[in-house]
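Lay summary. Proteins are chains of building blocks that fold into shapes, and those shapes determine what they do. In this project we predict the shape from the chain. Here is one chain we studied, written as its sequence of building blocks.
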Amino acid sequence: MDKPIEIKGDCQFMRDLESNNKFAMYNLIVSKSAVKLWTKGIKPNRYWKVSHVKEYFGMNGSPKVLLEKMETLYSVIMGDL
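And here is the predicted shape, written in a compact code that computers can read:
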């Protein structure tokens, strides 16, 4: 991915991450796998919506772009990059 990740600074994920809440990392891991399923045409559960993920993480884009952004974000936070 050539472009930098754009995240809204006031999204819930950033607030949870700044307050050192482990719930933010849990949501990133679970949401990343859910979006991966969604890109393959599988809905993770009956109430799941990609718009909820976009709102929580302050991101936008198609499911494939969203997955790339989430994987990059995970790598940056975990120190892989």
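What the prediction tells us: The chain has one domain: 12-78.
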